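Question (not urgent): is this output format expected?
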Amino acid sequence: VQLQASGGGLVQAGGSLRLSCAASARAMSGYALGWFRQALGKEREFVASITWRGISTRYSDSVKGRFTISRDNSKNSVYLQMNSLKPEDTALYYCAADADPFFRSPNYWGQGTQVTVSS
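Got this back:
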């Protein structure tokens, strides 16, 4: 399973970014996909996840209502649309995949993409 995240960058508070994660075909078939993030000096935390067919999504309370996760299985990709960004969203964002639809402890990880939100 291979995952490649992209789309990070520097944005002002209140702005938007869209992260993308290209996944191998194996990661798309029957796997839940999602995003975690890790800010400097902090533990990695769950951000959002989506089940294989995209029927169910889950978000952390800190991003609910601002971020939207989606996937396009025909393009082997998962996305994270981030709106109303805040400085506290600054972190290295990782995409992940796992067969567990509840996405409790993903087994597969991509490299991170840096998101920096300036105040």
